Amino acid sequence: MSYLEHFLKETTSTTRHGSVDSVEGDIEDNRAPSITSSKSNLSELSIDPTSPLSHELLNKSSSTHGQTNLQPKPKSHQFLVRTFSAPTKCNHCTSLMVGLTRQGVVCEVCGFACHMPCCDKVPPMCPVPHDQTKRPLGIDPTRGIGTAYEGYVKVPKMGGVKKGWVRQFVVVCDFKLFLYDISPDRNALPSVYVSQVLDMRDEEFSITTSLLEPPGLRNHTLMLADTESEKTKWVVALSELHRILKRNNLPNTTIFRAKELLDNTLAFIKNVMSGAIIDPDRLVIGTEEGLFCLDLDRN
């Protein structure tokens, strides 16, 4: 065998064995990848913080992390003006929303009802947290705002006690007693019309019970409770509120004070066409004869 033939034979055998070994090595590597080696490769992988690729990877990871921590944005209230057909209290200040129409606003999403001025003070989160949806009854002693007590009583019918008694719904709100008529129908709700308002700020306001003779005041309203315990609750609640009112000496916020004008010598009083209040003691009235000023303190 020549040297050339011997060289070609060795080269062919070497190439064949090398290719088989390399293929077997590739198959072994692909068939049984090592988890440990992959971890070590990741740990050994170094990223240059100054390279653009590292900044891109960091920005992507931070943005992905920020997206996972984002919480849904709370919804806001959608208030619309509403008209209530029964006495309704403001869910924010607990005072009554008085009036015949358009007494307040209601959120279309969560149903939160409140006064229009209270709308800006309501927690913006919709729905309102459960611990703030139903506030306990009570009157703010510094401002005199809020509902302190409510319930059902009986009052005399038109014509006196001998005519019988009718059921009414009473709400003690803003140091006033609001009396609402109730239809005789079963399960009827109180009417939105206020039949009578008793102001506890009146200097002559007082609470008495179980009197056999009339107190002799200008005006008195009889109320009959269903049970003795209910009567005690009403008397204690009203007496305590009246005591708080007197103790805090809240300012008088009365806008008008009613006075009766009666003078037979002044014929134009019967033909009054307009009027305006100048101050608590003087009144201007307009008639066909002209404009007159009445001094209420003079006889």
Outline:
This protein is α+β, with helices and mostly antiparallel strands.
Provide structural commentary.
A hairpin with a 7-residue loop joins β6 (176-182) and β7 (190-199). The longest helix has 29 residues, at 3-31. The model is unreliable at 15-47 and 52-58 (pLDDT under 50). The protein contains five helices and ten strands. The protein has 299 residues and is α+β, with helices and mostly antiparallel strands. The strands form three sheets. Strands 4-5-6-7 form a four-stranded antiparallel beta sheet, with helices on one face. It has a three-stranded antiparallel beta sheet with strand order 1-2-3, with no helix packed on it. The relative contact order is 0.07. Among the domains are: 75-132, Wheat Germ Agglutinin (Isolectin 2), domain 1 (2-Layer Sandwich), CATH 3.30.60; 147-211 and 218-247, Roll (PH-domain like), CATH 2.30.29.30; 259-298, no CATH class. One of its GO terms (cellular component) is cytoplasm. Residues 146-243 form the PH domain. One of its GO terms (biological process) is actomyosin structure organization.
* Subunit arrangement of the protein: single chain
What is the H level of CATH, i.e. the homologous superfamily of the domain at 147-211 and 218-247? Pleckstrin-homology domain (PH domain)/Phosphotyrosine-binding domain (PTB)
What is the string of helix and strand elements?
Answer: HHHEEEHEEEEHEEE
Outline: globular
CATH C-level of the domain at 147-211 and 218-247: Mainly Beta
Task: Calculate Rg over CA atoms.
Answer: 43 Å
Main sheet: strand order: 4-5-6-7
**Which fold name corresponds to the CATH topology of the domain at 147-211 and 218-247?**
PH-domain like
**Number of helical segments?**
5
Low-pLDDT residue intervals, each spanning 5 or more residues: 15-47, 52-58
The N- and C-terminal alpha carbons lie at a distance of 157 Å
Overall SS class: alpha+beta
Strand portion:
15-25%
- Gross CATH architecture of the domain at 147-211 and 218-247: Roll
What's the count of strands? Answer: 10
Region (Disordered): 14-74
Cofactor: Mg(2+)
Domain Phorbol-ester/DAG-type: 76-126
Keywords: Kinase, Magnesium, Metal-binding, Phosphoprotein, Transferase, Zinc
